[in-house]
Amino acid sequence: MQKKTLYLHIGWSKTGTSAIQQQLDAHFKTLKSEGILYSKKLQMNDNAHHHFALAFQEAKAYPAKFTPSEVMALHDKEMKRHRCHSAIISSELSPFYYQNDAFKKWVTQFKNVVVIATVRPQSEVLVSLFNQLIKDPQVRFKATFFQLTINSLGRFNYFNSLNRWRNRVGDGNIKVINYQNDVVQSFLELFDLAVIGDTKKIINPSLPTSALLQIQQQALEISNPKQYAKRRDEITQECQHQLEPPSKIWLTAGELRSIDNHYMASNNRVAREFLGQPKLFTQSDYRDIYVY
């Protein structure tokens, strides 16, 4: 069967990806009836295709289960079994796949490659990512928010990344979806799908922000993931039952605004060149963030 389109949803992290992936999996049969595979075999957690992404670039806390050749063969087999001509691969861990020679050869079987990017103001992304990294018992994040921000400056430059993809797949094959504009429904509309179930359900809930530093401090030396998760939950409960609200400023409104100001020019370039709009994001309501 002639293969038509490979849709690569590359993330970014903390832009509604878990909710999107849950919906795509729920629409498996509908997509299949249209000849589009949303792989079951590549799913690792939260219905994400992390097995595919990790095969090309491992993460420290999550080693790869497959080699690139193995994961591409697995995907080919699944497409053949379900008689699909197109596929969606969704992982916020996606590296730039075109760095891999085997991928460059494999992807030529598709007539078209479409890259879908979900984007969100970087200050919000980084706060949410910091939360996720502390929450994850496999990661047990020990660095500061400042370190995370500095180390992520290049990663969250949306324009530079999308421009790199554009050079491979072409201008018309880059789709940008704004988190501020009902990101799940907007994503599904690309495939003429509607949200199934509760639209307000949180797929990957965050920890209370007020508890984050206490979890870091009190669980710092715990290396066992199960023990870490247990202590994390205990500290969370303790913070939630505090009679007084948190009073220690963790991040100021000015610091959060500075992060977004750093990216404003490149974000607006994304808006102009990929969306035909002057600005990518509306002004955020910056407020100081307090913790225990």
From TrEMBL:
<dbReference type="InterPro" id="IPR027417">
    <property type="entry name" value="P-loop_NTPase"/>
</dbReference>
<protein>
    <recommendedName>
        <fullName>Sulfotransferase domain-containing protein</fullName>
    </recommendedName>
</protein>
